Amino acid sequence: MEAVLDVTDIDVAYGQSQVIENLSLRAASREIVALMGLNGMGKTTFMKAVIGLLPVRSGSIVVDQHDVTRAEPHARVRKGLAYVPQGRMVFPKLTVEENIITGLRSSRESIPESLFRYFPVLQSMRHRRGGNLSGGQQQQLVIARALASRPKVLLLDEPTEGIQPSIIKELAEILKAIRDEEGLTIVVSEQVLSFALAVADRVVVLERGKVVHSALRDEVDEQEVSRLLSL
């Protein structure tokens, strides 16, 4: 199956510190890939490199057959990438609706109504300020804002961080519904194995910027992955 996201042999460094070395990852249409690993193993660096917030020293990044390796972040968004960073960066003084509007590609566009179907709590709170939402609601808001650009590939960095277990389970179901209905490819970085197994079609584990385990969900060696996540 043809990859919608094709990252090949990228090297990424902070100054003289090499964080990612010869890392490749392909994600097909309608595939959810969970990128796992402890803090500091390269998950966030990978996300920032793909969206263009960090330069790659070598290698290539292709989105829907468009080479975006040297493109600016806004140009990558136009080619179909969307990124939800770690930490739920809502605009606290803007309403829910205004937050989502900032994700639209053009001021002439309207908010896709499907977003409120996926996240009904945002419909009832669309005129409430983003800063007044709970952590789980803010996470739904930033995902909805990213989806407003109608991407082909959604990058989610640690979406379960700091939210309660019931919301985590609900989030897994929402992401799968979005994948199925929108034909979206999703790459989600994660440390919680139960969430990764609930949402992903494939699990990839990073250690020191390299892939050390990769398997389809039904073939994942849970003991080995748990070991890698507890070193």
CATH class category label: Alpha Beta
| Percentage of residues in DSSP E strands | 25-35%
> Numbering strands along the chain, what is their spatial order in the largest sheet?
6-7-8-3-9-10
How many alpha or pi helices? Answer: 9
Summarize the structure.
Helix content is 33%, strand content 28%. It has 231 residues and is an alpha/beta fold. The chain is globular.
Describe the structure.
The chain has 231 residues and is α/β, with parallel strands linked by helices. The protein is built from 9 helices and 10 strands. It has helices spanning 43-51, 73-78, 96-101, 114-118, 120-124, 135-147, 165-182, 193-199, 222-228, and strands at residues 3-14, 17-28, 32-36, 58-63, 66-67, 81-84, 153-157, 185-190, 202-207, 210-216. The strands form 2 sheets. The protein has a 6-stranded mixed β-sheet, with helices on both faces. Strand 1 and strand 2 (17-28) form a beta hairpin. The radius of gyration is 17 Å and the shape is globular. The termini are far apart. The mean pLDDT is 93.
